[in-house]
Fold each of these.
Amino acid sequence: MLARERERVAAAAVRLARERLVIGTAGNISERSGDLVAITPTGANLEHLTPDQVTVVGIDGQHRAGELAATSEVELHLGVYRRYDAGAVVHTHSPMATALSCVIDELPVIHYQMLLLGGAIRVAPYATFGSPELAEVTLDAMQDRLAALMSNHGAIVCGPDLDVAVDNGVLLEWACTVYWRAAALGTPRALDKREQQQVVTAAIARNYGAPTQAEA
């Protein structure tokens, strides 16, 4: 059941661990296929996760396959799928995102690449891990965004598939690192709404981010 998705979730876990966005058992990853979700299990070392350890649950939360129980944040993942119809979800305790979640209320658009995540990144209020309250405040913070920080906890990103979701997690940690370094030098400048719209317009006109055939 969901053999391909279970392989992808395990591979993503290993990649994120090697990039130090997750550590040990802290963090969770999932990918959806229809009404089923392949998701990391609770208590497993993500750097050494194998496809057979990945759990499968229904969008209704019922266990469908795998010997291990799903992550304690399963309801957060399912909430993203139900509310935003995402294809994959990644929750990390990445160092810089977690650090900033302890001190700021919002990560402003300090670089135009943050527009790929939807704009300024909100910080959801603190709530106990695995709780319905945490799921609710985090889902609210993700409104019109592909990412949110979770106060004194970590970060969450989503995407249409797992490759994009993982890339979004890497991008968010990079943006947090840039903000931290800028804040160490002074007050970071944020792009205003006009500047953000100019980026969107230029990206559309230039097909930014996609390979382009060179002119002869």
Amino acid sequence: MILPIFAYGDPVLRKKGESINEDFPALKELIINMHETMYHANGVGLAAPQIGKAIRLFIVDGSPFSESDELDEVEREFLKSYKKVFINPQIIEEMGREWAFNEGCLSIPNINEDVVRKDTLSIEYLDENFKPQRETVGGLAARIIQHEYDHIEGILFTDRLSALKRRLLKKKLENISKGLVEVDYKMKFPKLIKK
């Protein structure tokens, strides 16, 4: 089932996610619905707060980037099958060089800005079968994880922009929260203005 994506301004996007256990109600169905929702909106990641649940869960699928000519063959091959579920993740370390990449967000449609992040991270998490995992990831896969991880910490990519950039985007962000934006997927707007 395709779920509505909560738009910028909704309080759930600012909550730090709660850890969950295997007894979380309808978890398998939730993960399936999150994948359907993400693919319907042409996303490469989706965090539970974006569908109104303040829990430590997100999904990623780097395969859309596997077609990019800007990446080397090794990274394209890696991203082709990089599809994961992260439950109760904890970033252990971010390392490497800082690099800027143009990020967008399904909760903040039609806004893309360069965000600076470290290029490699180590993360511990539980997979969809609640098996403990630990991995070190670099490049775009790390970028997608960092972006989604921010969501479960109550952080949006716009928070990582300069104060000047945020001021310049203020009106656009207000319009998103009011539903004054064109999107081709279901959204829930906190300050919807009826048309």
Amino acid sequence: MQAYYKARGYYDVKVEAEGDPTIAEDGRVPVRIAITAGPLYHFDDVTVSGLDHLRPSFVRKRFSNLKGKTLQPDVLDEKFGR
């Protein structure tokens, strides 16, 4: 569940699950799952530092179309070329 929410921009998600096998019936354990999504994060801007062999403008241009969009790790990985 955490991966599902984080992939959709909820980086502070908290998932708690609790079950009690001692009250199982026919091999089925009741489970309670509580999800607190937290805030939805958006891509704001790019700050570039510490580059020796790459122009900062290259990095800024590569990520400029993400401004204002929901922050998604798979999209960032794609932009990084991983």
Amino acid sequence: MRFYDRQHRFYAGIDLHGRFMHVCILDATGAVVFDKNIPCSPDAFLAAIAPFRKDLVVGVECMFAGTGCPTCARSRRFSS
């Protein structure tokens, strides 16, 4: 079994709700560099993570079976 052991510069957590999502981004030392509630839209999400995208890992809370994170999924530009 291969284990993922790469470090990243930034780590983001998203708590997804109906109209808003809370996004918190930490740097590699654990310092908070972004912590806000933003609208649930691909454009708002992409704007929030723009300064950190070069080396960012995202985790999402409130994942429903089979649906994933619709806002993140619609943000296809996120993976580019």
